[in-house]
Amino acid sequence: MRAVVMGAGSWGTATAKVLSDAGTDTTLWCRREELAERINASHTNSDYLAGITLPANLTASSDVAEALTDADLVVCAVPAQSLRSNLADWRAHLNDDATLVSLAKGIETSTLMRMSEVIAEVAEVPDDQIAVLTGPNLAREVAEGQPAATVIACTDLGRAERLQQTFNTGYFRPYTNTDVIGCEIGGAVKNVIALACGMASGVGFGQNTLATIITRGLAETIRLSAAVGGQIETLAGLAGIGDLVATCSSPLSRNRTFGAHLGQGATMEEAQAAASGQVAEGVKSCTSVTALAEKYQVSMPLTEAVNRVCHDGLPVADAVSSLLGRKTKPEFLPGES
Question: Name one Pfam family in it (predicted).
Answer without folding.
Answer: NAD_Gly3P_dh_C
